[in-house]
């Protein structure tokens, strides 16, 4: 029997109607706060509303959504609801397609973040006795800060190695006996490869039992590959969140939902989540794919209402009956892709994660190295070029591997792609978020 760990049992065991009632109460309080902010008054007025209208929970669906252009139009402090002097810390988005956007955190916001993360850690079974290799960076990015705050609140021992330093990390995993690792699945695979080159067997010599992996969409097949390289019983948990949501605080699996590749919307008392059709913005039914839209309910500085993440997930067929007892916290699948990253090849919708799934399940490939290249406008493609790598330990030829990947893409996705297989070490490696689609 799998042990169930609750950080906040009074909330985590609520029925869905009770969770909704709490959200409605906090929406009304949020409206009272935003009523004092001219910027937010203007935003509500676009829909013929005022912030006070949030006292009616139906008003939220009538509000316009927010996206990056809305935030950049309010540069440098978009939607900041407290004086800058009251902000304890600023964090920023990656700024991969423009100037980074900063989000403020008051002392109360940082306390909130610590509690949200501690709940996530307890959900996956992490405890004060664990030694954690914390591999996410700090600085202006929120990832490492969130992990550090949550580990302190939980009482686990933090080894904040940060990114890189692979030669040191593979030895410290032996010598210091880390039982949990927080970094990307790509970095897990890279460390395992590096360790074997140095005569270290991760399955035998490391003590890892838990992983938290976020920062990018990764296929289930690749996650399975990573788990197979780690010690017996190791589980890598997909963590979802964003800077706009207040951190990596939106969804994580429990011990029961992990085998089904599903995540609980674990902090619904502070982050209200809608799963909607990206075209109509209407809620999707169980089993359907939709875009995640975020509203932060209690964050003091830089709240968002109906933030469009562009991330696509599948709402579970049975979102409210997990055996762990968190019936009020719906289940969603992992991120399939982004609505603005989708490729359309001769009319067929293709997500990079689908290509990754094929690469990860093909014998002889280097699982962490693959790339999609496009040469035309991405809205409508006639041709898809995929490059992969041959694992040096494989006895298969590059032509044999390329032919199988090409055949699998045709069989599963219904398109014909040009696939080239290169020697291992040819393609770029990504320590953090991978850029899988490149224009030649």
Descriptive account of the structure:
The protein is 30% helix and 22% strand. With 440 residues, it is of the alpha/beta class. The chain has helices at residues 9-12, 16-34, 38-45, 59-62, 68-72, 107-123, 142-154, 166-175, 185-197, 202-205, 220-229, 352-360, 398-413, and strands at 89-92, 102-105, 131-134, 157-159, 180-182, 210-213, 235-238, 240-242, 247-252, 262-265, 271-276, 289-296, 307-314, 331-333, 337-338, 343-345, 348-350, 365-374, 385-390, 418-423, 437-439. The chain contains 13 helices and 21 strands. It has a five-stranded parallel sheet with strand order 4-3-5-6-7, sandwiched between helices. The model has no long low-confidence stretch (mean pLDDT 90). The chain has a domain at 343-439: GMP Synthetase, Chain A, domain 3, CATH 3.30.300.
Low-confidence segments, ≥5 residues, pLDDT <50?
Answer: none
Strand order of the largest sheet: 4-3-5-6-7
Task: Please state the second-level CATH architecture of the domain at 343-439.
Answer: 2-Layer Sandwich
Largest sheet: 5 strands, parallel
CATH topology tier name of the domain at 343-439: GMP Synthetase, Chain A, domain 3
Structural class: alpha/beta
Strand content: 15-25%
Helical region count?
A: 13
Distance between the termini: 52 Å
* Helix share bin: 25-40%
What is the total tally of β strands?
21
**What is the highest CATH level, the class of the domain at 343-439?**
Alpha Beta
**Gyration radius, to the nearest Å?**
22 Å
Shape field? globular
What is the CATH superfamily of the domain at 343-439?
ANL, C-terminal domain
Mean pLDDT: 90
Q: How is the quaternary structure best described?
A: single chain
């Amino acid at each position: 029997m799998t042990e169930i760990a609750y950080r906040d049992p009074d909330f985590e065991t609520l029925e869905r109607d009770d969770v909704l009632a709490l959200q409605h109460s906090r929406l009304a309080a949020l409206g009272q706060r935003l009523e004092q902010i001219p910027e937010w008054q203007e935003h509500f007025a676009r829909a013929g509303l005022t912030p006070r209208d949030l006292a009616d929970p139906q008003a939220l669906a009538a509000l316009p959504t927010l996206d990056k252009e809305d935030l950049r139009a309010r540069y440098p402090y978009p939607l900041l609801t407290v004086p800058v002097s009251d902000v304890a810390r600023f964090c920023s988005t990656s700024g991969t397609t423009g100037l980074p956007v900063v989000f403020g955190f008051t002392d109360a916001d940082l306390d909130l973040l610590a509690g949200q993360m501690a709940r996530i850690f307890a959900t996956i079974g992490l405890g004060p006795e664990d030694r954690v290799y914390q591999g996410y960076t700090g600085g202006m990015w929120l990832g490492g800060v969130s992990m550090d705050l949550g580990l302190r609140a939980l009482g686990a021992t933090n080894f904040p190695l940060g990114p890189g330093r692979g030669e040191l990390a593979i030895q410290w995993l032996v010598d210091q006996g880390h039982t949990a690792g927080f970094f990307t699945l790509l970095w897990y695979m890279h460390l395992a490869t590096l360790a074997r080159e140095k005569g270290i067997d991760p399955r035998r010599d490391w003590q890892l039992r838990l992983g938290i992996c976020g920062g990018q969409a990764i296929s289930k097949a690749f996650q399975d590959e990573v788990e197979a390289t780690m010690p017996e019983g190791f589980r890598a948990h997909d963590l979802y969140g964003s800077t706009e949501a207040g951190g990596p605080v939106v969804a994580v699996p429990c011990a029961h939902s992990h085998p089904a590749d599903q995540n609980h919307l674990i902090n619904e008392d502070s982050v209200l989540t809608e799963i909607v059709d990206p075209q109509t913005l209407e809620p999707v039914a169980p089993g359907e794919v939709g875009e995640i839209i975020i509203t932060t309910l209690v964050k003091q500085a830089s709240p968002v209402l109906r933030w469009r993440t562009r991330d696509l997930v599948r709402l579970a067929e049975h979102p409210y009956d997990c055996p762990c007892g968190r019936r009020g916290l719906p289940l969603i699948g992992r991120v399939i892709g982004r609505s603005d990253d989708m490729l359309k090849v001769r009319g067929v919708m293709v997500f990079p994660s689908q290509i990754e799934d094929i690469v990860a399940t093909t014998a002889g490939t280097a699982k962490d190295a693959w790339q999609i290249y496009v040469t035309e406008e991405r809205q409508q493609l006639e041709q898809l070029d995929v490059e992969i790598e041959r694992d040096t330990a494989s006895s298969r030829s590059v032509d044999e591997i390329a032919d199988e990947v090409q055949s699998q893409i045709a069989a599963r996705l219904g398109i014909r792609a040009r696939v080239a297989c290169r020697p291992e070490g040819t393609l770029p490696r990504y320590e953090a978020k991978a850029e899988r689609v490149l224009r030649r």
